[in-house]
Amino acid sequence: MATTSEGSSQGTTQGAPSKDTTSRGTARKSTPRRSGTSRSTTSRRTTQATSTSTQPKTPIDQVGEIAERAVLVPVGASLLVGDNLVSTVRGLVTKYRSRAGVERELKRYERRGASARNRFERQVRRTRTRFERQVRQRRSLVERTVRQNRRRFEREVRSVRKDLERQSSQVSARVEKLVADAQGLISQ
Question: How far apart are CA 149 and CA 155, in angstroms?
Answer without folding.
Answer: 10
